[in-house]
Amino acid sequence: MIYLEQIPVKPIKHKTTLNDVWRGRSGYLFILPHFALFAIFFLVPVGWGMYLSMFKYNVFSQTFIWFDNYKRILSDWLFLKSLRNTFVYTFGVVPLWLGKALLVTVLIYPFRKGIRTFFKAAFYLPHVTSTVIISMIWLWVFNPNFGLLNYFMTVLGMEPVVWLGRSLTAMPSLIVMQVIMGGGSTIVLLSAAMASIPEYYFEAATLEGAGSWAIFRKITVPLLKPTILYALVMGTIANFQTFSNIYIMTSGGPEFSTTTIAYLIYETAFKNYNLGLASAMSMVMFGILVVLGIVQFKWLGSNVEY
Amino acid sequence: MKAKTKTNIKKAISLVILAVLASLAFIPLYWMVATSFTQPSLTMKFPPDIIPKNPTLQNFEDLFERRIIFRWTLNSFIVAGTVTLAQIFVCAMAGYALAKKKFPGSKVIFSIYIASMMIPTQVTLVPLYILISKMGMVDTYQALILPAIAAPFGVFLMRQFMVSVPTEIIEAAKIDGASEFRTFAKIIVPISKPAMAVLGIFTFMGQWNSFLWPLIVTNTSEMRTLQAGLSLLQEQVPMQYSYLMASATYSAIPMIIVFLAFQKYFLKGITVGAIK
């Protein structure tokens, strides 16, 4: 049987005429206030940034140098190190924080609405507090001499650690802090998606004798896949740009072990005034994010529908 | 009976895990508030008091002696407030056009908006700074406000919401002879209030907590916002924890109040636009 909507309909090619533009004038008027600002303060800077990345642009000179900035950064050890740091940070934070969000979502699901809301709010609270504030608090938690963490270490009979002062522990400390404080919005997002799964799926599976783990793997995760993908892509983009915590807590140190790309771009542009070089760095960063996004969609998104 | 006991045990274990995870995030925040009421001399005491003994307002008095902090607060309110109101207004209009108006190029424009949400801040940072300084706007409110209104997310959010508004209502208004703008003001705006509330809350939060842009585009202490100002304090008096925690508490409170007051919107809001 052929359904009507299965018959391919060839759209009639219609050339846009001035008349169409005139008839759509109210649409243009409504979009204009935002689009004008968006064009000036977003689209122009994006284009200009690409152009700028081919300039030696500092206080003394503004010379067009083709791709020299790109050649320079791709052989610069600090840029490559900051890339590596950013990858370590992002791929340290994102899976752990997604795992935490999934765990919390599944655990709160069977409870009454009041308890669910309470936990959602509790996990969301750190999210409304700025990174600057969170970083200030944790700077103290990690303080080697009078920090809360080292206090617990001594109580447990362990040696105190200079958490942020050693290149071995600095990055893991920042990752742990981010995982502990983060994930609130993802929990809310996943809970909403989980609430839309029909309850009888779970009931039927339980009746069939499926264990919690099997239900989680075979029902929950596959049905939450679109939301997980969204959280994964957005989380990767956000954590790849991490800046405030680095600025407040470590200034990229010790020995550049916590210098992320975002922080390096800030230093290059606004401490050393190498604006062209910083633009080239931001373009490379953008390129990497595009590739990561495509990979994540390919990997997870094969049967996701929007 | 046996199955019921099993579920109850499961629920109890779940509660313990949830409580531990939630407290891990909550303890640092609690510690911030508790320390801000602690005598400065007692902040290095171990073990720390769970509830401060002889709580004091001394830290807040010291903080407010720095008059500049009120200027930072005012700046934060001016910037976050203006951006929020302006964004609600222009994004609602643009979202309406993209959802309900037919005009050549609308699809291309919508794709541009979607694609720009993937672009990291760092890409526009440097050129935007040069642009702002060429316009002579460094260290002004315009520099803090205008680029923030231009952010694309709000348009996407409003468009997603307005697609579901039935077109019949709009057409009925037109048949009744309402002008374009009147239709928008009297029909679309009232229907879209929930989406506008969500956008408003998230914009306000984003602006209140924004750090990188104010840090770059202001260079006098008077023009800093609260978050950028805090980082100055952190640099000036790095070890005075009770004082720093008082400043952190002070600047976190407005957002926490907003969160508790509009919790429903926060917890519902993020799902708008993410799930269809």
Could you characterize the architecture of this molecule?
- The complex is a heterodimer of chains A (about 300) and B (about 280).
- By secondary structure, chain A is mostly helical.
- Chain A has 14 helices and two strands; from the N terminus they run ααββαααααααααααα.
- Chain A has a single domain, classed as Orthogonal Bundle (MetI-like fold).
- In chain A, a hairpin with a 4-residue loop joins strand 1 and strand 2.
- The longest helix of chain A is centred in the first third of the chain and has 32 residues.
- The mean pLDDT of chain A is about 85.
- In chain B, helix 3 packs across helix 7, helix 3 packs antiparallel against helix 10 and helix 12 packs antiparallel against helix 13.
- With about 280 residues, chain B is mostly helical.
- Chain B has two domains: about 60 residues, no CATH class; about 200 residues, MetI-like fold (Orthogonal Bundle).
- The radius of gyration of chain B is 24 Å and the shape is globular.
- Chains A and B meet through helix 1, helix 2, helix 4, helix 5 and helix 6 of A and helix 1, helix 3, helix 4, helix 5 and helix 6 of B.
Major pleated sheet of chain A: 2 strands, antiparallel
The tally of structural domains of chain B comes to 2
Tell me the Rg of chain A in angstroms: 25 Å
User: Which fold name corresponds to the CATH topology of the largest domain in chain B?
Assistant: MetI-like fold
Q: At the first level of CATH, what is the class of the largest domain in chain B?
A: Mainly Alpha
The average pLDDT score of chain A comes to 87
Major β-sheet strand ordering of chain A: 1-2
* Percent of sequence in beta strands of chain A: under 5%
